[in-house]
Each structure stands twice: as structure tokens, then as C-alpha cells.
């Protein structure tokens, strides 16, 4: 690529306010598969100096007419992806007519026709694929939208309220929508299709009645009640916890099969990936039910955090995403188990976010340089962004945090603002100084903390010294403001009150310096310290803790999250010791005994026990090594699992046999299934008549969680029942693509010499489709993320499989391709043979003709 052809980066520091406002946008769509006409009338006001031209963004548009105040003009230029018009009056109406081809748009961005429905996706910069526009989030406009289509598209939907509908003289029909709230173009939506509809209503706290409508493909109505319930719960929760009420008279959700992400929060008209809406007990797992509730909540919560107050520019994405993830996590925690939700969130941080932060795509939660914005919808912006909001919540407390939220809306409702504006509202409302805290927004990388403890029995004092280090890949980072929560346990497992100078003090230490010490008095015995309780900051902590101390924490910490965390540390320590040892290494008797107690006593939340029994994921373990010892980690984990399965075989059988769920999706039944599933995971490794019976029982259940638990257990154990059960599942579910995704994901986990050939042959399976992101992610995504043994084959065939896919996907759907590339980003962390093979695939992409901006940005970063 020559330099002039290289995609250009945008920088946060170059932000300039717009020269024009778009007071109103009037759009008319005449929908046709390959030649949809879009007529756009923009009411413009100049706000910049009168020399400045109007610059509109547009990609793949055929411009057919351009007029100002009803007079056709020719004095304009189209340069690259911009339409430039000079000498516009201070106020005018600009009419633009363009044509687009939704049917051939496979990028699933802009307006596209897939699965029999027209649908849009405009965030971040997809609106420019629909018409010429100031496609930036700080240009807010009211919208009127008219949709004209053939009558087989029975539902014609857009944002806001429907104000007209009828027939056209040529036998087609139309619908007209008006959105009274000003919004940026990325929140625009249009859907045209033939759907079944679930209608409901919600009465808001104020007494206002709101219509709710859920649109799904014909025949799917029985799978909609859970999503509708989730929506109503979200509306109620946001009123109760955040004092926020819905603002329009109708809230619509449409489920479509072809969608790049989970869902999109378009004003009044959310568009969802069907896998994030549709569920019944036979087809969806408990995890699916949880995900649906959380995503429905997430999109709903965006109505205030994202839509009413939006981002000034895309560098501020975490303003809405970090905050909204925090809100959806709190929603799930208030409605379900706080500990399990925290465990899930921390797993995401430790497996995906830490690795992103340590690799070539490392960026602060507010990035400073971007080539393709779609590449920045990352675990860093979303999940680390949510951790940053959570830290503010910890520093301020719930009452002050809510005061901060109220001030934020009072100041900025209807505006496009920055992350700094949010922090200012939090700080002004609470009186807490957050100046140093703001560094979390501008510094990339995971901070490392080292904790050193000292107990002085003569003075009964306990001193904790915390030192913070810049991440290895970000050596210039300055010390951060870190809320560091602790608990001290005595020998009997009771919590010791924290005292200093005779007074009780907070358990959240304000760490601000590079090195700081904290002394606590009246500590009458050497305590066992629970550090970074509840993962109070997204950091990597090192501390010298013995196995006995970790077992003590696992038993007695007041935070269930920290109990789980201690258990993870026990496993991690054991794996590391085993990897570094030449001899056969075993989990200690004490660890096995602790697991035995958990299974036998079954005390407390069974879902938590299930988590406590799981070994850490490959990625969590890999993070512990500079160069990832792939074969050793796989070997040691397999060895430990066999050890657990053998030593606790009787207990696991008894535990599985003693558990019964009532088939519902309440928390107790979900927990029972979770514990049964982990029992089966171990039991499948020790085939016996008894365990085969359990496996067959679960596999024939009418509950998908049980079925998938059995299938996953047999696949991972290469159990003799594996082939039969998989082929039965295929014949049973071929009619349901979403269920077949589970089957593809199971197939992707196969090991054995022919695994690669077998997986490739599934591209020919009637349910597979390269243009559908769900299918591609189910098969190839599961393979490259989770089938470590085959993906990292030393002969490079696993890498080649992913490389081939990316070459293919680059032309079909660059956004999906770029997401699928991620496993290659950490190529430098593998041994010489593997890293050279991965690099070859990256170079192959780098030399590809027509490489998309999405892939270019990541490939270039990876190789440099
Ligand atoms: N805001 C959308 C994500 C858009 C992704 C664009 N590539 C969904 C969400 O975070 O709620
Ligand atoms: Zn979001």
C-alpha cells in the first residue's frame, strides 16, 4: 500500500465543533432491493464562519440530485467519501437524492436486506452508507421518516411515533414516523419486514402508559415472553435505582437474524440479534436467558445514558458504554446473584481485557487515535470502562453517585458531551476530588500492584504496604487513584474491625502514591488478609500468600467473590508449579479435601459452588506467563481434571444424583443445573455405567442447559457417547439455526488428528452460512478462542484455517472479520514456531489486495 492509499487515522486532539447544525432531517425511503431511493431534506443553520463549506460524509452512494431551497445545484464536489458544498446561505433547506443497494450490502452496516427484512445499523458511522450527512455524534437533529415499500413488508418501522400510514397509488404502502427527541445519525433506525408481534404495556411511575412491541420472524412468538419480561423489569429497575423513566409513548424491539453485534439502542426502536431475544426452555440455556435479560436491559438503559445524553465524538465512546455496562451489571446483580455477576465480569476482565491491554491493540478507555471506529467497541472501552465507573461508585458511595448522575442529567440532557463532563458532575455533586482519578481515562495497560504485609505482635499492629507499577508496555504511566478494598480475617475466620488511632476506618484504602503504607491497630493475632476485595480496581495484584491462607480465605471471606478468587489463585499456583516441574505434579490433598467439602456439604449458593469447582480458563492461566507454554498448560489442566474426577468420583456421583431441578428458570433451579453440569464435566472423564446413565439422562432432557451440559462434557472428554449424541442433536435441531449454533460450537471443540478437516467440512453443512456472523462465530470463533489444542497445533493448520476465513470474510463483512482476527493479536506471546506461523498469516493479510480499514488497523498494529 502506498502512503497516500493507507487508511488515515483520526485523533482526539483534532476535535473541532461542527460548522453547521441540522435542525431537522426529513427522510423518505423508497425501498427496492438494489435501487432504494433515499430523499433527504436537511434544514441547516450555519454556526461556523461564513467561508466554511458544508462537508457531508457518504460511502457507496449514487447521487442523483442536489438542490438548495428548491433550486438544483451543480456547484459541489465529491472527494473521496465526502460531499463538499461551498457558499451556502446562513439558513437553507438542502435536498439530496441518492440511491443505494441494500441487497448487495453484506457488511451489515448502513441499510441492508437480509433474511427477508430491510434493516439498518448506523453506529458508529453507518449512516453515511445511507445518505450524505454530517455523520458525527455531536450533530443532533429531529427526524421525520417516510418509508415506502411493497405490501409484503407488512411492518414499516422507524424511530419515535407513527404519525401516518396508507396505500400508494401504485399498490405499495407507506408509513410515516416522527421522533420528537433530537438525536445523532447513529441512533437512526429503519426496519421493513413481515413479523409476528408480541404487544404489551408498561405503566411508568408517573402513571404514563407505554406501549411495548416485540417483532420477530413468523412462528417465533412462543420464544418472546422472556425478552418482554426483561424489558419490563429493566424499565422498573431504572425508575427505582436511577430515578429514570422512559420518555416516548412506544418502545419497540425487532429481532433479526443477520446482525454484527448483540443489539443496538436506536431511539425507540432497538434492533436485536435474534439470539439475544429468542428463548424457551427447550432451545435456550440458562446462560442465554441471563444474557437476554442483561442485553435487553443494556439497550434500554442507553435511552438515558447514550441517547438523551450522547457522546461529543467517538473517542468518548466509554462515556455511554462503560456507564451503561456498569448499569446493566448492577441491574443483573440487583435481580440475581451479586457474587456470580461479579465473577462473570471479572472473568471477562482477566481473560480478554488484560490480554488486550497487554497487546498491540492496547488503548485507554478513551482512545486517542482511531482508524476504524468499529475496532474500538472493545472489552477495554466497555468492560474496563465499566470498572472505571464502578471505582467511582466505590469512592463516592451509592448516595453520592446517584447525586452525580442527577447532576449529569440536569447539566447535559439533550447534549453531546465528554467523559470529563461526566467526571465533573460526579466530583461536583459529591465533593470528592477526582482529578488524579481521571488518569484512568487516558492511560492504557493494566496497573500492577505489589502488596507486602507486616504484622507486629508486640504492638498488635498490622501494616500493609502497596506499591503500584506502570504496566510493562506503558512505562510512562503515572500513579493512579486506586480504591483498594480489604478485609482482615482472624484465625477463626471472623472479620477484624479496621482501626486507626482508636477509630474505626473504612475498608477501602485510597491508594494514590507510587508506594503507600497503611497501619491498623488492635490486631491481636496475625491476620489473613483478603486484598483487592471484590476486585475493587482492575489491576494485577501480586502478594505472597500461602496455600493455607488461600484456603482460609476460600472458607471464610465475607465476599463470595473473594472466596472464588482465592480458589482461582490456589489453582493458578498449582498449575504454575506443575508447568515448571519435570515430575508428575498433583493438586495437594488440602485442595482436594476443600473441593470434597464443597461437594458433600452443598452449603450456600449451589451456583457459586459450581464456580468454585472449575479450573481457570486457558486464557486466565496463559496470562501468568510471559511466553505461553501451550502444551504444558493443556497437559497440566487435563491432569488436574482427571485427578479431581478420580479422587472425588463417588462424591460427584452422589452429588449429581441428589440434585433435582423443577424445570423453571428461577435462581434455585438454575443453580442446581449449574452444579449438575460441572459434576458431569468431571464424571464424563471416568466412563462407567452410572455416569453413562447420567449423561444419557441429561442429553435427553427437555431443558437445553441439561442437554448442552451433557454434550459439552462428552465432547471435552472425548467420551465414547460423543458421536452418537452429536449426530442425534443435528437431526433433532436442523430446523433451528440458533440451536444449530450450539452444535457448531460443540463441533469446533473436537480434538484428534482430523479435527481441522472435519471443521472445514462443516462449511458445507446446510445450516452454515459465511454471511451470517452468528454462524461464523459459533464455528470458527469457538474454534480459535476455545479449542486451544487444535488452534495452536504446532503444524500451523489451525492458524491457516483462521487465516483462510479472514481472507474470505474481509470481502464479505470487514467488521466481523476484524473481530475474528483477535486471537492472532497476541502472536508474540507464543513460542518461536507458533509465533512465526501466526505471523505468516498476519503477513498474508497485510499483503491482501483490498484489505479493509478494519483489518488493516489491527494487522498493522500487530506486525509493528
Ligand atoms: N451501541 C451498540 C454497539 C454498536 C457497535 C458498532 N460497531 C450496542 C451497545 O453497546 O449497546
Ligand atoms: Zn452499549
Features:
864 residues; Immunoglobulin-like; Zincin-like fold; five-stranded mixed beta sheet; 26 helices; 40% helix; binds (3S)-3,7-diaminoheptanoic acid; binds zinc ion
Descriptive report:
With 864 residues, the chain is of the alpha+beta class. Among the domains are: 20-193, tricorn interacting facor f3 domain (Immunoglobulin-like); 448-549, Aminopeptidase N, middle-beta domain (Immunoglobulin-like); 734-864, Zincin-like fold. Helices cover 40% and strands 22% of the residues. The protein has 26 helices and 33 strands. An 8-stranded mixed beta sheet has the order 6-5-9-3-2-12-15-14, with no helix packed on it. A hairpin with a 2-residue loop joins β28 (499-500) and β29. α15 (667-683) packs parallel to α17 (704-716) and α16 (689-699) packs across α17 (704-716). The chain is globular and about 90 Å long. The mean pLDDT is 97. Residues 298, 302, 321, 324 line the site of zinc ion. Residues 24-187 form the Aminopeptidase N-like N-terminal domain. InterPro entries: Aminopeptidase_N-like_N, Aminopeptidase_N-like_N_sf, PepN_Ig-like_sf, Peptidase_M1, Peptidase_M1_dom, Peptidase_M1_pepN, Peptidase_M1_pepN_C, Peptidase_M1_pepN_C_sf. It comes from Pseudoalteromonas marina. This is Aminopeptidase N.
Amino acid at each position: 500500500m502506498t502512503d497516500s492509499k493507507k487508511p488515515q487515522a483520526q485523533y482526539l486532539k483534532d476535535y473541532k465543533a461542527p460548522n453547521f447544525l441540522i435542525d431537522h432531517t426529513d427522510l423518505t425511503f423508497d425501498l427496492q432491493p438494489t435501487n432504494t431511493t433515499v430523499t433527504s431534506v436537511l434544514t441547516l443553520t450555519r454556526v461556523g464562519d461564513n467561508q466554511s463549506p458544508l462537508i457531508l460524509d457518504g460511502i457507496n452512494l449514487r447521487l442523483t440530485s442536489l438542490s438548495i431551497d428548491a433550486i438544483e445545484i451543480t456547484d459541489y464536489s465529491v472527494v473521496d467519501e465526502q460531499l463538499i458544498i461551498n457558499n451556502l446561505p446562513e439558513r437553507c433547506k438542502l435536498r439530496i437524492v441518492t440511491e443505494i443497494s441494500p441487497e448487495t450490502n453484506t457488511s451489515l452496516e448502513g441499510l441492508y436486506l437480509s433474511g427477508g427484512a430491510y434493516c439498518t445499523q448506523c453506529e458508529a458511522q453507518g449512516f453515511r452508507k445511507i445518505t450524505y450527512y454530517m455523520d458525527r455524534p455531536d450533530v443532533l437533529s429531529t427526524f421525520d421518516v417516510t418509508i415506502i415499500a411493497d405490501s409484503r413488508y407488512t411492518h414499516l418501522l422507524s424511530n419515535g411515533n407513527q404519525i401516518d400510514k396508507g396505500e400508494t397509488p401504485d399498490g405499495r404502502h407507506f408509513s410515516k414516523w416522527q421522533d420528537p427527541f433530537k438525536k445523532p445519525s447513529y441512533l437512526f433506525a429503519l426496519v421493513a419486514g413481515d413479523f409476528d408481534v408480541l404487544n404489551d404495556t408498561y405503566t411508568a411511575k408517573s402513571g404514563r402508559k407505554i406501549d411495548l412491541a416485540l417483532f420477530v420472524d413468523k412462528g417465533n412468538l412462543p420464544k418472546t415472553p422472556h425478552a418482554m419480561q426483561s424489558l419490563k423489569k429493566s424499565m422498573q429497575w431504572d425508575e427505582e435505582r436511577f430515578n429514570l423513566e422512559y420518555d416516548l409513548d412506544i418502545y419497540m424491539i425487532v429481532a433479526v437474524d443477520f446482525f454484527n453485534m448483540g443489539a443496538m439502542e436506536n431511539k425507540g426502536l432497538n434492533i436485536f440479534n435474534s439470539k439475544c431475544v429468542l428463548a424457551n426452555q427447550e432451545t435456550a440455556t440458562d446462560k442465554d436467558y441471563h444474557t437476554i435479560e442483561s442485553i435487553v436491559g443494556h439497550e434500554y438503559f442507553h435511552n438515558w445514558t447514550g441517547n438523551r445524553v450522547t457522546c461529543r465524538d467517538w473517542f468518548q465512546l466509554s462515556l455511554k458504554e462503560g456507564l451503561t455496562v456498569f448499569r446493566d451489571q448492577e441491574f443483573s446483580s440487583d435481580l440475581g446473584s451479586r457474587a456470580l455477576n461479579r465473577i462473570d465480569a471479572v472473568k471477562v476482565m482477566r481473560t480478554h481485557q488484560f490480554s488486550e491491554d497487554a497487546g498491540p491493540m492496547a488503548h485507554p478507555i478513551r482512545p486517542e487515535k482511531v482508524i476504524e471506529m468499529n475496532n474500538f467497541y472493545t472489552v477495554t472501552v466497555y468492560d474496563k470502562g465499566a470498572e472505571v465507573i464502578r471505582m467511582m461508585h466505590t469512592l463516592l458511595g451509592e448516595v453520592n453517585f446517584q447525586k452525580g448522575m442527577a447532576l449529569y442529567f440536569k447539566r447535559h440532557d439533550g447534549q453531546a458531551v465528554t467523559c470529563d463532563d461526566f467526571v465533573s458532575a460526579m466530583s461536583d455533586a459529591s465533593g470528592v476530588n477526582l482529578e488524579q482519578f481521571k488518569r484512568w481515562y487516558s492511560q492504557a495497560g493494566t496497573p500492577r500492584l505489589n502488596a507486602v504485609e507486616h504484622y507486629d505482635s508486640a504492638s498488635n499492629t498490622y501494616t500493609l504496604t502497596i506499591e503500584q507499577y506502570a504496566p510493562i508496555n506503558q512505562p510512562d504511566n503515572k500513579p493512579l487513584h486506586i480504591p483498594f478494598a480489604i478485609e482482615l480475617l482472624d484465625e477463626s475466620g471472623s472479620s477484624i474491625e479496621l482501626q486507626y488511632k482508636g477509630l474505626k476506618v473504612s475498608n477501602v484504602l485510597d491508594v494514590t502514591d507510587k508506594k503507600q503504607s497503611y497501619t491498623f491497630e488492635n490486631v491481636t493475632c496475625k491476620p489473613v488478609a483478603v486484598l483487592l476485595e471484590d476486585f475493587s480496581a482492575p489491576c494485577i495484584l501480586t502478594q505472597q500468600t500461602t496455600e493455607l491462607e488461600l484456603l482460609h480465605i476460600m472458607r471464610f471471606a465475607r465476599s463470595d467473590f473473594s472466596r472464588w478468587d482465592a480458589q482461582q489463585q490456589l489453582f493458578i499456583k498449582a498449575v504454575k508449579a506443575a508447568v515448571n516441574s519435570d515430575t508428575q505434579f498433583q493438586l495437594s490433598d488440602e485442595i482436594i479435601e476443600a473441593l470434597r467439602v464443597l461437594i458433600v456439604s452443598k452449603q450456600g449458593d449451589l451456583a457459586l459452588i459450581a464456580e468454585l469447582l472449575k479450573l481457570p480458563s486457558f486464557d486466565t492461566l496463559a496470562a501468568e506467563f510471559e511466553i505461553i507454554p501451550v502444551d504444558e498448560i493443556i497437559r497440566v489442566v487435563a491432569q488436574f481434571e482427571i485427578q479431581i474426577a478420580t479422587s472425588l468420583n463417588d462424591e460427584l456421583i452422589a452429588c449429581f444424583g441428589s440434585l433435582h431441578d423443577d424445570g423453571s428458570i428461577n435462581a434455585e433451579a438454575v443453580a442446581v443445573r449449574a452444579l449438575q453440569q460441572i459434576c458431569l464435566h468431571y464424571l464424563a472423564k471416568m466412563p462407567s455405567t452410572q455416569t453413562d446413565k447420567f449423561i444419557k439422562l441429561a442429553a435427553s432432557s427437555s431443558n437445553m442447559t441439561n442437554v448442552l451440559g451433557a454434550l459439552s462434557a462428552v465432547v471435552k472428554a472425548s467420551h465414547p457417547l460423543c458421536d452418537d449424541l452429536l449426530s442425534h442433536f443435528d437431526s433433532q435441531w436442523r430446523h433451528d439455526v440458533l440451536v444449530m449454533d450450539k452444535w457448531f460450537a460443540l463441533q469446533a471443540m473436537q480434538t484428534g488428528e482430523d479435527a481441522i478437516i472435519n471443521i472445514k467440512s462443516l462449511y458445507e453443512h446446510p445450516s452454515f452460512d459465511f454471511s451470517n456472523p452468528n454462524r461464523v462465530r459459533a464455528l470458527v470463533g469457538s474454534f480459535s478462542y476455545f479449542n486451544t489444542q487444535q488452534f495452536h497445533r504446532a503444524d500451523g493448520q489451525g492458524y491457516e484455517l483462521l487465516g483462510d476465513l479472514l481472507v474470505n470474510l474481509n470481502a464479505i463483512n470487514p467488521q466481523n472479520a476484524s473481530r475474528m482476527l483477535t486471537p492472532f493479536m497476541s502472536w508474540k506471546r507464543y513460542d518461536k514456531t507458533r509465533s512465526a506461523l501466526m505471523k505468516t498469516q498476519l503477513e498474508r493479510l497485510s499483503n491482501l489486495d483490498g484489505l479493509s480499514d478494519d483489518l488493516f488497523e489491527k494487522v498493522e498494529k500487530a506486525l509493528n
